[in-house]
Model the fold of this input.
Amino acid sequence: MVINRTRIDTGKEIAWMVSLTSALVRCPTGCVVGPFAPSDENVLEGQRSTIRETSKVFQGPFTDIIQNPGRQDGVHFNGELPKLAEEWSNAMNDNFFQNATPFIPTPVPDIAFNCGDNRVDVTLPDGYNNYEWSDNSLNFNNGRFSNQRRVTLDVAGGRQYFARFRDGNGNVIQVPAISFAGSNIPVSTITATGATDFCEGNRAILKANDAVIYEWNNGSRSQEITVTTSGSYSVRTISQFGCQTNFSNPTIITAKPGPPKPTISANGNTIFCADTNVVLQSSNQDAVNYLWNNGTNSRTLKVNATGSYTVKTVNSQGCLSNESDEIKITVNPLPATPSIVPNGATTFCADTSVVLRSSNQDAVSYRWNTGSTARDVTIRTAGDYSVRTVDRNGCISKSSAATRIRVNTLPPAPSISSTRDTVFCQGDGTILQMALTNGGFPTWLATQDGVVNRFTFSNLNVNRTGSYRGFQTDVNGCKSGLSRAIFVSVKPLPPKVETIQRLSPYTIGIEKPQANVYEWQYNGTNRPDLTASIVRINEAGKYRVTAKNVYKTLSYGEKVCASEPSSEFSFELYDDNGMSIFPNPSKGVFFIDSKIDWRNSTLEVYTLLGALVKKASVSLFDDVKKIDLSDLPEGEYMLRIRSDNFYTISKRIMINR
Done:
């Protein structure tokens, strides 16, 4: 009934929110907290049905659980009010605000006044019911003097009048009190505070003369208005008599246009290193002045400090623009100036070097004046060396102090020579000489048997095979390049022949020869015709032999190295008519050694009965010859040898297996 009555009286479907509340929460004597009071389900269901069955009625909070037990009178809350407020706030959710229709207050309608001498005609708005006037405050029973919409009121005596009327729903609209003092018809005037011509963004304040009601031609209803745009402004008022004036003389306002909000452009990156800068330029090139937030007044601004920069511009009418959007400048500091650390002396010889290392190990790159970008550089030439470092922001440090490198030139490679042939026999030697320049100190490098030995003599006695080179060291400790190599070859002597053996009846020799030439002596006299390790002998006597090796060289011809002579060997001839056959007997193979070089000989083998069983020929008996009779049976045979000079010799031989 209550909900429906509000909607009937207002003529609007006013939204309601109904809480769920039913518990009778008692507080015992002395307000000792009692037991929890249960909800009354019948009451709750009545509330729910009202919410379900009535449009624009929404469920509020469930309050039975708040301050239960403990309410002073069993019903009203006297504690936990924040909790109750929170629950109401939570109940007014999106569903409520999306579906509940709000209604704004009904404005008081305009009242028309028509002023004259000592009287004012007042007309209430049309379309309403039950117009009532009272001159006794709001006591319309005793003070009512008219039921008309339009009345004429006396302005004398400072009296107050009240009026009311009703709308179609019976709602009463109460008119504010109308009072008069005097009888002059007012005239509206305007007073301006500040200049009436100003730059856009500024303002002027226009104030009407004192009155009760104000109506400006821009719709404002206040005594004082703030004007920001160009135009003609006038006002009319309703005085304390209730009389309305005509519009005042206009006040002309001129809002001079300001320059547009400037923009800032940069001629490069806005993040850069401390050794450079960026030029900022304002738009509005026609401006007569520029106001940067750092105090600069030119159109362009050279910046090399971190910060946020803005600008305003001033046009020819003296109007100031809005401030530009800020542009942020970030200036990264330069890396620390590096230092250079050499890993050795900075004065050295031309065949060595030094490594220069930059500090700032955290740099991402290094810039040496050589062009290298590594942290370490190897220096081999004289000069002044410096480095700059680059950090992760790409900023380059100042150049380090220069490190001066001095490089001493190397002395020239010495010339070397030998006083004798460099190929000689064991036991001999030569002297190698080194020619030095500029007071150098000699060093020989002798590679002997795979080992390099050093000698510091100018003249070097050499008796071992090897490659010999030299260099010189000057007073700065610089070493020259190596000289050309001299190869010394010491040829070994062949071993002395310890034993001469009789190898056959007419040959002597060496069992294991170890030389390529042998020189024989017979009874103390050289035999140049005998040069082999095995020789045929046809004269008895004493023999010696010397072993010789012959070496051929490119530069020194043949080099002959000889052993000591052997001991004497006595040779006696056998009584065999100059022909020996051995072994005899044998198993079938015989050797024939002759004292004389028989030519074109015929060999014939006969049985003891005279039967010819084998025949062969030998063109020259110049060494021991072999005859193979292995295919003959065992027994005794007669070997006959005949030469082309008709010399014949016969030997009895035996095959015994």
Residues 117 and 183 are 6 Å apart (CA to CA). The chain has five helices and 56 strands. The radius of gyration is 72 Å.
